[in-house]
Write a structure and sequence with these properties.
The protein is mainly alpha-helical. It folds into 2 domains: 93 residues, no CATH class; 71 residues, Arc Repressor Mutant, subunit A (Orthogonal Bundle). The protein contains 8 helices and no strands. Helix 1 packs antiparallel against helix 2 and helix 6 packs across helix 7. The longest helix has 39 residues. It is elongated, with a radius of gyration of 33 Å.
């Protein structure tokens, strides 16, 4: 029974000392931790949140005998918190929004393509269709099967009864023909 009471008292004393150590680290490091985050991120609120996360992780780790309470530990955790934040933002594709960066051009910008660009794209597409129609029958079939239907060159060769080398030559000639025709349009 006395051993249990001794263990409880030791754990309580360790917990009290641990809390005191965390509080001392907080008092010593909080301002420099905020500066650390301000140099790396622009948002004031985020810097404060990240500083809180650092101490939350430290508290979550709980008391350990092997833990050395020093600013280096706090800044190591801060680097981990910052890295996790950047990973999370990148994976969730969260971009920083700054309303002061908006200019009149940005406010008037429309994501829809302009009518002249739509017309130009349609004309180019029609020209591509016409040029494909001008290809010899086998070359046209090879091109359409490979580029439109996404057949491999081996599959095109098997489907049309040609060699793979022949399919490669037809593709090269078709692409060259179409690229010349599109260059002439420009």
């Amino acid at each position: 029974m006395e051993d249990n009471q001794q263990a409880v008292m030791t754990n309580t004393q360790t917990g009290v000392r641990w809390n005191e150590n965390v509080q001392a680290l907080y008092d010593d490091c909080y301002k420099s931790l905020l500066s650390f985050f301000h140099r790396r991120i622009a948002e004031e609120d985020d810097a404060q949140d990240l500083a809180q996360q650092v101490f939350a992780r430290l508290i979550q780790a709980g008391p350990r005998q092997d833990m050395d309470f020093c600013p280096a530990l706090v800044f190591h955790i801060a680097n981990c918190v910052l890295r996790d934040r950047f990973k999370w933002r990148k994976s969730n594709r969260i971009a920083r929004y700054d309303p002061f960066e908006e200019t009149h051009e940005n406010l008037l910008f429309c994501e829809q393509p302009q009518q002249d660009r739509i017309l130009e794209a349609r004309q180019r597409l029609t020209a591509v269709y016409e040029e494909i129609e001008k290809l010899p029958a086998t070359r046209k079939q090879v091109f359409l099967l490979h580029r439109v239907r996404d057949f491999s060159q081996r599959e095109v060769a098997d489907h049309l009864g040609l060699s793979v080398r022949s399919v490669e030559k037809h593709m090269v000639k078709a692409v060259l023909h179409l690229s010349r025709a599109l260059d002439d349009l420009s």
